[in-house]
Write a structure and sequence with these properties.
heterodimer; A: alpha+beta; Rossmann fold; Dna Ligase, domain 1; D-amino Acid Aminotransferase, Chain A, domain 1; 4 domains; 15 helices; 23 strands; globular; disordered C terminus; B: mainly beta; 2 domains; six-stranded antiparallel sheet; four-stranded antiparallel sheet; 16 strands; 0% helix
């Protein structure tokens, strides 16, 4: 075996196991390959035929029915690393990425952990101790309170008293939270109990920890986050902001960099606060400091995500810095090699999350099979996808199918590019939010860059949609397709399908050389 | 064969004529009444699952795929579903909004009892799918006449969860 890129680094490793699935596993596994590292995937029964298994050099099966048995099973993942000869672990986002016990277990097993030190994760990953840390370091935080309920004790009295002190409307948040899970807005006291129980249950199911805290709900604010990266020599820089204000039910839908609401002065101030936040906990690796930017232009620390974010590509596009590669380098003990002054901001990048969901029915997750999945290509278009044509979309996992990212010289040009790319994203067989995304980015609130985090939840989204094609034309197309017998032909992507490029019947090995967007 | 586009838009029947591979509608009815056929002619495109669609003389490319009774159509940057129905068949199995499972998932909590009176919009059942919780609310006021599932049950999409009577 030839020497890998980090064979002479302070913490050398040559093969990365990715403890994740879907698009982020694909992204990291590809980055490993590009860097000259070996790559190992793990997969559950439901993922035996998934894309991330295909892109890895090697894949290890973890059996079990539930997520706790598989992607949340740190013991099984570490033994998969040891048995496959992997010597580093990348957690992706979600799952075990913010579990300090996993980070320690990886290190204790003699493997390189691609992420911040376990103590940093536990300080920052626990939203309550992160707040306390930020208050100590002088970073502004949202008014709120921690809720301490001893096991088995009656929580309702404590909760109600705490809520009354914070004031309504308020937000219940999972201390271990992320991705909108375990987060509930409470408008008035009578909804407190039901929302608390829902939040706590969601948090227990998603993170294995049902602890909740209470925060004042800022309305009309924007979600602005700052990407930071730090090495183990005390160098810490920020890579500008991302604006993720377009959310529904606290889940991000569209993210962009730079923010239309941030000028260079505010960027410097928020960047400096983010760096201060990271340095105060001795951060290492890539991380994100999230802020709320109030309608008056004041910003407040929200939380720090001690991992790669879903929306990291918009930063990569505008700075030209490959964040996953930087994560590898920092984990290997190499210095950052860049200083703040080296970080540029080129053009404008926007990411749209493609979800299998029905926007017209309260964003309900949808299932089915992707009979057709064709992604757009061209200059300034990037697709980070976890699925391919023929794949089944099931209720077992998160409904995000892919991320469509565009980059252009200006925000206007990026919006036009995104709309064009969304028009050319062909997903048949599963209801997706693609049409909704087109409607949203055409909305005046978005084109003028004035969206706040409550925009979608307070808008009548049924008014967004507009269809240019007449129903009668669609009936004609369906009738013709039926008459021509198109449903009988091999469109199911399985064996026997005609290969798109060669026109020959499918060859199981053919897919291995398929190019990814 | 009858066709519908979206919900509550009526049923179409159509006659297709084929002139050397160029297909068009020679007649079209909506809920039994004749309507104008669109100025459309359709032919096979070079690749499978694609159709060339001429609308009023302008050429468009459509991608189509059939799953179950649904023809999925991508045309002009938008995705549509055209559903096939047996002639004269009843409306879809979907019961009036709210009382059936909107997606496959697990019942987390049942907030009402049989015989209980509920008001419109009251939460009845909490279910979970894809790690998110969804509340099933009463579409109208009434009395709970039947609860079909218990906490922990897995339900299919469209399964009737609760029945409400007067």
């Amino acid at each position: 075996m030839t020497a890998g890129p980090f064979s002479s680094a302070p913490r050398p490793f040559s093969t990365v196991l990715v403890a994740n699935r879907g698009e982020i596993a694909v992204r990291v596994l590809q980055a490993a390959r590009e860097s000259g590292l070996g790559s190992v995937a793990v997969y559950s029964d439901a993922d035996a035929g998934s894309l991330h298994v295909e892109v890895a050099d090697e894949a290890v099966h973890i059996s079990g029915e539930t997520l706790a048995d598989t992607y949340l099973n740190s013991e099984a993942i570490i033994s998969a690393a040891l048995s496959s000869g992997a010597d580093a672990v990348h957690p992706g986002y979600g799952f075990l990425s913010e579990r300090s016990d996993f980070a320690s277990a990886v290190a204790d097993a003699g493997l390189v952990w691609i992420g911040p030190p376990a103590e940093t994760i536990s300080t920052m990953g626990d939203k309550i101790s992160a707040r306390i840390q930020m208050i100590k370091s002088g970073v502004p935080v949202i008014p709120g309170e921690e809720l301490t309920v001893p096991d088995g004790a009656d929580h309702l009295g404590t909760l109600a008293a705490c809520a009354a002190r914070v004031g309504y409307p308020l937000l219940l948040k999972a201390s271990a939270g992320g991705g909108g899970k375990g987060m509930r807005a409470v408008q008035e006291p009578k909804m407190l109990r039901a929302e608390y129980e829902a939040a706590s249950r969601e948090a227990s199911a998603a993170f294995g920890d049902g602890t909740i805290y209470v925060e004042s709900l800022l309305t009309g604010a924007r979600h602005i986050e700052v990407q930071i990266i730090a090495d183990s020599y005390g160098n810490c820089i920020h890579l500008n902001e991302r604006d993720c204000s377009l959310q529904r039910r606290h889940q991000k839908v569209i993210e962009e960099s730079p923010s239309p609401a941030v000028d260079s002065e505010l960027r410097q101030a928020m960047g400096a606060a983010a760096v201060k936040a990271a340095e105060s906990v001795g951060y290492e690796g890539a991380g994100t400091v999230e802020f709320l930017l109030s309608s008056r232009g004041k910003f407040y620390f929200l939380e720090m995500n001690t991992r790669l974010q879903v929306e990291h590509p918009v930063t990569e596009m505008t700075t030209g810095i490959d964040l996953v590669l930087k994560q590898f380098e920092v984990a290997a003990g190499l210095p950052l090699g860049i200083i703040q002054a080296d970080v540029g901001l080129s053009g404008h990048a926007i990411e749209a999350r493609v979800y299998a969901e029905d926007a017209s029915r309260g964003f309900l997750p949808c299932v089915g099979r992707l009979a057709t999945w064709k992604t757009p290509q061209g200059p300034g278009i990037r697709v980070d996808s976890g699925v391919r044509q023929g794949d089944a979309v099931t209720i077992d996992f998160d409904p995000m199918l892919a991320k469509l990212i565009v980059h252009a010289p200006t925000r206007r040009a990026a919006l036009r590019r995104l709309d064009t790319a969304l028009s050319n994203l062909i997903a048949l067989g599963v209801t997706t939010n693609i049409g909704f995304l087109r409607d949203v980015i055409a909305h005046q609130a978005f084109t003028t860059g004035s969206v706040t985090t409550d925009f979608l939840d307070s808008s009548d989204i049924s008014g967004f949609s507009h269809t240019e094609v007449e129903s009668t034309v669609l009936v004609a197309v369906a009738c013709a397709a039926q008459r021509l017998g198109l449903e009988r032909a091999p469109s199911d992507g399985g064996l026997g399908a005609l290969d798109e490029h060669t026109g020959h019947p499918g060859d199981p090995f053919r897919t291995l050389t398929r190019s990814f967007p | 064969m009858e066709w519908s586009v979206g919900e509550g838009t009526g049923r179409y029947t159509a006659r297709v004529s084929d002139s050397e591979g160029l297909l068009s509608l020679s007649s079209l009815n909506l809920d039994g009444l004749a309507v104008n056929s669109p100025d459309v002619s359709i032919s096979r495109a070079n690749q499978h699952g694609r159709l060339r669609v001429e609308i009023a003389g302008a050429s468009h490319l459509a991608h189509v795929a059939k799953l179950g009774d649904d023809w999925w159509v991508h045309l002009d940057g938008r995705i549509h579903v055209v559903r096939m129905h047996e002639p004269g068949s009843a409306e879809d199995e979907s019961v009036e909004g709210g009382l059936s499972a909107p997606m496959p998932g697990t019942i987390l909590e049942i907030l009402v009892k049989q015989g209980q009176r509920v008001r419109e919009g009251q939460a009845l059942v909490v279910m979970e799918a894809m790690k998110m919780e969804h509340r099933i609310q009463a579409p109208l006021a009434g009395e709970i006449t039947k609860l079909h599932y218990s906490v922990g049950d897995r339900v299919e999409m469209g399964a009737t969860l609760v029945e409400i009577g007067d």
